[in-house]
Amino acid sequence: MTNKTSLRILAKRWLVFTLALVLAAGCSNASEPEGAASPASPGKFELSFERLDTDLTPEPGASLLVWESKEARPFVEEIMKKFTEIYGVEVKMQELGTMDQIGKFELDGPAGLAADVITTSQDHLGKAASAGLILPNDDFGDVTRSEHEPVAVEAASYNQTLYGYPIKVMTYAMFYNKDLISQPPATMEEVVEFAKTYNDPDSNQYAFMFDAPFFYFSYPFLGSTGGYIFGKNGTDASDIGLNNEGALKGMEVFASLRQDVLPITAGDIASDIKTTLFSEGKVAMNVTGSWLIDTFRQAGVNFGVAPIPAIGGQDSVTLSQVNSWYVSAYSKYPNAAKLFARFASTQSAQLLNYELTGAVPTHKEAASNEAIQSDEITSAFYKQFSRSHPAPSIPEVGSIWVPMDAAMVEIWDGKDRKEVLDRAVKQIRDAISLNAKQEDKPAEPEASKSPF
User: Fold this and answer.
1) How far apart are CA 452 and CA 450, in angstroms?
2) Alpha helix stretches (DSSP H) within 261-346
3) Which among 155, 121, 162 has a CA at the least distance from the CA of 140?
């Protein structure tokens, strides 16, 4: 049986494995929300909720509608209840995925049908802010900047204006099987050395796997060594750093892994395959996000989580997503909406969110809480996040994903990295220029779809 054939068989086995997990979850009385780390035990924190230190007061007769995802409901219901108890403002929640909110908001906002407070990530912020759909975080701007990680504040800002009230972070890190490797490697050089003793391609046994064909997951091999998407902290689309000297250095390490660590073609690297292999104890280290924690637990893997090993002598830098509350510019009760957004993003609120859903905090004091620091999984994701680059919030970021995904495939499969990156950057510039000419069109081009 060829290696490629066996990988295809694994893909089919993954479907069976996934179905089994779904059936198991259906028989359970409780399950963890997708995309969340493991929640703490209920009542683990001594939380204090009280009126905010501000002169801002809700409008007479105010009531609010909040949009949030299904996974966040346990937290949102509890925080709405506390807000109503303190401020006397009724708050209702409508389930809506964070990726779907801006599109619906563009239509429902002017019609007066949209939520007063929405939740989304920074890759949609530029579109919302430039269209005047949301209000700046002005009344609580200073305290938000002081309390949250700089990466989170940057992600919630557009054109040097803070709009969001950060809630939680999402990025990826390295899962490792403790039965196969007791201590996670600190550098890629250590990964290479381990691979020499562990790899057995004929048996689909690999030391280290990551989604090499996808730029989102391969970004550490550019960002860690000096590459970047856009200059000025992701705000200057005229300055593209995806083919600079640092990016080329990191791509040298990236390309070398094909020979030294993961000797398979880009076409045979797929998330479902590596998830199956890690679940079966075939892969020692697997770079992915927190959304697979429960999958690995149900598979019985004795795993830990650690930051991705250093690349080219530099700490690994991932891309991160920050979800924040945003206040509608169409809200009839902007004061109440601002108060809720602030109230639902404080230290106590983020600890409650972690307790009920496992959300990784953006609030510095919440993240430093002893219970979270002692949680190996959450603290590892937070550590990786603290050294991450937030995906740019400007609309031009939509033009990078398709060209850079294609570039990762070509470089992994042996093409000249400088030639490939130069071509990808040219394609990005051309797409940005074309999109600028078509900016009056309501629909985004296919190439501008975000991976988030």
Assistant:
1) 5
2) 271-279, 293-298, 334-343
3) 162
Distance CA 342, CA 337 (A): 9
pLDDT digits 0-9 by tens, 250-289:
999 999 999 999 999 998 888 888 999 999 999 999 999 8
Contacts of 116 (CB under 8 A, 6+ apart): 64, 65, 66, 327, 328, 331, 332, 333, 334, 336, 337, 340
Residue 165 to residue 317: CA distance in whole angstroms: 24
Handedness of CA 416, 418, 422, 424 (dihedral sign): positive
Does residue 33 fall inside a structural domain?
A: no
Number of helices (H), then strands (E), belonging to the chain: the values are: 20, 15
Residues in a beta bridge with 117: 66, 327
In angstroms, the CA 189 to CA 426 distance is: 32
Beta carbons of 420 and 410 less than 8 angstroms apart: yes
Tell whether 184 and 166 lie within a shared domain: no
Would you say how long the chain is, in residues? 452
Domain count, the chain: 2
For residue 225, tell me if it sits in a domain: yes
Question: Taking the model in full, what pTM does it have?
Answer: 0.75
Q: Which residue has the higher pLDDT, 444 or 273?
A: 273
